[in-house]
Amino acid sequence: MFLLGIAYAMGTSPAGTNGAAEPQAIPFFAQPWFMIVIMVAIMYFFLWLPQKKERKKHAEKLKALKKGDKIITTGGIHGIVANAAGDPVKVKIADNVKIDISRSAIAVIEPAQEESKEV
Fold first, then answer.
1. Backbone dihedral region of 59: left (phi > 0), alpha (psi from -120 to 50 degrees) or beta?
2. Strands of 10-74, DSSP E
3. Torsion of CA 103, 104, 110, 113, to 10 degrees
């Protein structure tokens, strides 16, 4: 019943126009295409751009991978890099246990901590 009253009110013409309704101008910022452009810009700056920066930073870390770095794979394997040459990286996961891991499977890299020499 409520919607019927709104529909009736929208259908009536103002007094003095003889039934002809004049089109109302929509403000520029309320145009549908403008709203879509704004939404795409918001998604770009809040979703795609930060993710792109994160991927670039992770790729740089993978290139700089060296012996002694602690890693965690996407499968949850924790280990220390034994040999970083080539695509399959040798990772030590336990005493006398080394496995080959693809570089693309490395999720987290913690740089090797060099022992400080106290004088």
1. alpha
2. 70-73
3. 10
pLDDT above 90: residue 58: yes
Neighbours of 98 (CB within 10 A): 14
Cβ burial, residue 101 (10 Å; 0-12/13-18/19+)? buried
Query: pLDDT at position 5, please?
Result: 52
How long a stretch of residues is the chain? 119
Q: How confident is the model at residue 92 (pLDDT cuts 50, 70, 90)?
A: very high
**Range scoring the smallest mean pLDDT among 10-14, 26-30, 68-72, 89-93:** 10-14
The DSSP secondary structure of 78-93, one letter per residue, reads EEEEEE-SSSEEEEEE
